[in-house]
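Meet the record:
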Amino acid sequence: MLKGVIFDIDGTLVDSNDAHAQSWVDTFREAGYDVPFDKVRPLIGMGGDKLLPKTIGVSRDSDEGKKLGERRGKIFKSNYLPHLRPLPGARELVLRVKRDGLKAIVATSAKDEELKGLLKAAHVEDLMEEKATASDAKRSKPDPDIVQAAIDESGIPRNSVVMIGDTPYDVEAASKAGVRTIGFLSGGWTRKELKGAAEIYDGPADLLAHYDRSLLGKESRE
């Protein structure tokens, strides 16, 4: 029986993937790197430990990597976070999950200090019961560390939780952690790219509209 739902947040509950990509582009440009948006955007959903080496060949743990990561966080927080909006149905979906007696958990590659603002932007800051962030994991998605941390935080067996995410990295990370995934197209990836998800919906509102026939609705009633 289903007992909990692990939510990704960027691209899943809040429309923020383009903003994250642009904040990295701005950071690179400021530091003298010419990295186009189209190179960064497909990497959103991973953490800086993956993105920095793939874009400019710099380790996140190097002095330069740390400075770039800190600067990106400041740019995102000041220039982009205040303008973010929830995806349609985001709050209503989490409320429905909780009304069905399921625990709502966040698992994100964002850092602790960024998560608070993202949850507020998604209008769900008062609904999440547990969280796992980049601060709780050595490796970001698609490695399973963050999903495993969310499972550990929740105290729920992995076969009694489902993850909802919008990127192939969410699907891969959850699979490696032994957790099924519901995929959302709201983050910009295609059905083909989300292959491996148990179910795929356009976004929160679409899942909510089909909730009773979804994995969530069926297994929360068993």
